[in-house]
């Protein structure tokens, strides 16, 4: 654990960059309470990602000083605008409106969630510089390195892709507190152990009330699911989706608070969070729309049953929602080519409906066992809400909506279902993680249900403190206690696979490439099969590699070089492409990662038999070659 202690400054800096700018802004807008804190990371990310793109357009190098200036200007505008056009609570002074007042119970609950997350994540992850063996990690690490090296944090650098996740981490790493790999690992821990518990506690308190039992239960419930954050810490690696899902409970809590209170400051705080969510992962916005619609529909049906509204009004409103929803689903991919591309993703592992239900409800996703403890807690929570806290029934409906989306993505072969699930790449893993957002509320609701049952036990009925303590501690016992080993095996398997072909770049491989990288003059280009781990030379050592993702792109100079490198003597187009990228070195290896696309890198195999290169040094499984063909050798 000594390695993790050394990362505390990194954790602090990344947390401050993530929370402080947005918190100051939403406080100036008039949002208060835990919801304001929970939504502040989304607002901060929006400020960083959007204004970093603007800074690039006007020729300003992004950094902490531009962030401070942008934050100060936005806060001043928000404060001035609210002074002129808005209304604050008259009983609150200016200092209280800005700074708020911590709630001890909520702080304790957040600490509980954070401690449980750290206790489960850190041992499984191993070391801060441990590489999660997933191809997406190569791209994300490379993009963060590109931001840091260029000072250009734009959404279009190097290609158009949401920049919220990458720009936040790169901004936090500007002071030099950590290298890219350990810094990114610490950033994911900030999301899982700080952002997620804060959002969960805010959502649960808003949905179920602010009693101590429910508040503490929220802290324990934030660590109850393997589907989130455990899976998204290593599978994919879906780091932007990890960030978006971690931010969703806080945004949802503020949305529900604003809808009930109708305070302009809370609505403005929620609106201020939307750009950040879109610039992290747009499906977070879609998730909030789905949750809001489910809440509205459920509330309308409940109003009809209670005769607060006539059924004619209820039917009219539901018909409008249905018509607008269907029209939006059909029109969205027509308007957005990017969305149409996202919806075209297809997965081969279709399963029967019952299997899909077991996976999403029973938690048997990528693990062999059903999480029976979690199933019991979900059932108790749903029962308690249905009998005692009916105002929270919309949250149950949200969870059922996620279950339906999951089943559609996991089992349906109908083409139209992609119109609904395509926002999540038709990926059941992302939808299982999303189901944890309302699921946390259901698990927390199990605590008062258990307390009610335990009060009927003769030995405990007269001891309210003992009853409450037992009721809330059942949550970690039935989740972390029963499936802690399963959770650990899953997460450690992402970072330390047992099969060598599942390892992108081992520590030994990193050492070999580090020594070879030292032989390459700064700035000169290097090429190698992406599947041998050489793209990681860019984020780890700053070596100018041609490929910075796995696998090779199918267009442009990358595919020309990848398929024609071994024939450079007879391929002027290959030489021209290499000259454009100053390719003067090549790396070969006996190691090949499992996600192999040999047809895209056929020209980069067995470099010992390729004319136009000469070996320089072999270190471990890797050999460095100098390019002598295409007239590129003279300057080497």
UniProtKB/TrEMBL annotation:
Short name of any one Pfam family annotated for the protein: DUF6541
Q: Which residues form the signal peptide?
A: none
Q: Which UniProt keywords apply?
A: Membrane, Transmembrane, Transmembrane helix
Looking at the UniProt entry, the stretches that span the membrane are 6-26, 38-58, 64-85, 106-125, 186-204, 213-232, 268-298, 318-340, 370-387, 393-419, 431-450, 465-486
> What is the protein name for this chain?
Uncharacterized protein
Q: Which organism is it from?
A: Terrabacter tumescens
């Amino acid at each position: 654990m000594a390695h993790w202690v050394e990362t505390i400054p990194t954790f602090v800096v990344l947390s401050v960059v993530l929370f402080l700018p947005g918190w100051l802004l939403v406080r100036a807008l008039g949002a208060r309470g835990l919801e304001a804190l929970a939504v502040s990371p989304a607002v901060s990310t929006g400020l960083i990602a959007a204004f970093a793109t603007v800074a690039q357009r006007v020729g300003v190098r992004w950094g902490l000083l531009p962030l401070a200036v942008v934050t100060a200007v936005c806060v001043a505008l928000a404060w001035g605008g609210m002074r002129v056009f808005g209304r604050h609570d008259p009983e609150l002074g200016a200092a209280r409106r800005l700074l708020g007042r911590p709630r001890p119970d909520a702080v304790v609950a957040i600490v509980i969630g954070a401690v449980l997350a750290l206790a489960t994540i850190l041992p499984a992850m191993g070391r801060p510089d441990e590489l999660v063996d997933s191809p997406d990690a190569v791209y994300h690490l490379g993009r963060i390195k590109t931001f840091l090296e260029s000072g250009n944090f734009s959404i279009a650098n190097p290609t158009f892709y949401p920049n919220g996740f990458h720009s936040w981490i790169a901004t936090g790493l500007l002071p030099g507190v950590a290298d890219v790999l350990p810094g990114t690992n610490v950033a994911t821990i900030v999301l899982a152990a700080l952002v997620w518990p804060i959002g969960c506690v805010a959502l649960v308190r808003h949905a179920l009330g602010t009693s101590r039992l429910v508040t503490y239960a929220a802290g324990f419930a934030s660590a109850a699911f393997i589907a989130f954050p455990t899976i998204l810490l290593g599978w994919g690696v879906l780091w932007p989706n990890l960030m978006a899902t971690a931010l969703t409970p806080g945004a949802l809590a503020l949305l529900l608070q604003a809808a009930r209170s109708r305070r302009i400051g809370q609505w403005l705080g929620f609106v201020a969070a939307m750009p950040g969510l879109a610039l992290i992962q747009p499906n977070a916005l879609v998730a909030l729309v789905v949750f809001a619609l489910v809440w509205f529909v459920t509330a309308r049906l409940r109003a009809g049953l209670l005769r607060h509204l006539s059924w004619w009004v209820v039917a009219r409103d539901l018909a409008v929602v249905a018509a607008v929803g269907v029209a939006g689903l059909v029109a969205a991919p027509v308007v957005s080519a990017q969305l149409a591309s996202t919806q075209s993703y297809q997965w081969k592992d279709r399963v029967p409906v019952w299997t899909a239900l077991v996976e999403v409800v029973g938690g048997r996703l990528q693990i062999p066992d059903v999480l029976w403890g979690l199933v019991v807690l979900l059932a108790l929570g749903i029962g308690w809400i249905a009998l005692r806290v009916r105002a929270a029934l919309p949250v149950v409906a949200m969870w059922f909506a996620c279950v339906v989306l999951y089943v559609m993505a996991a089992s349906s072969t109908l083409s139209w279902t992609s119109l609904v699930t395509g926002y999540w790449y038709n990926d059941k893993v992302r939808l299982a993680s999303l189901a944890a957002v309302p699921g946390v509320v259901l698990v927390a609701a199990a605590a008062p249900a258990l307390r009610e049952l335990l009060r009927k036990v003769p030995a405990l009925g007269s001891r309210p403190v003992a009853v409450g303590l037992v009721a809330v501690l059942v949550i970690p016992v039935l989740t972390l206690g029963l499936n802690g080993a399963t959770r650990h095996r899953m997460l450690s398997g992402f970072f330390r696979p047992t099969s060598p072909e599942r390892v992108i770049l081992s520590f030994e491989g990193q050492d070999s490439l580090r020594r070879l990288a030292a032989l390459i003059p700064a700035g000169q280009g290097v090429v190698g099969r992406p599947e041998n781990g050489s793209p990681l030379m860019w984020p780890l050592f700053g070596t100018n590699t041609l490929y910075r993702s796995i696998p090779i792109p199918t267009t442009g100079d990358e595919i020309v070089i990848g398929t024609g490198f071994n024939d450079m003597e007879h391929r002027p187009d290959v030489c021209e492409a290499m000259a454009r990228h100053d390719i003067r070195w090549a790396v070969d290896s006996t190691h090949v990662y499992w996600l192999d696309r040999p047809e895209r890198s056929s020209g980069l195999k067995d470099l010992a038999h390729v004319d136009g290169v000469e070996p320089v040094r072999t270190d471990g499984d890797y050999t460095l070659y100098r390019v002598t063909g295409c007239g590129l050798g003279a300057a080497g």
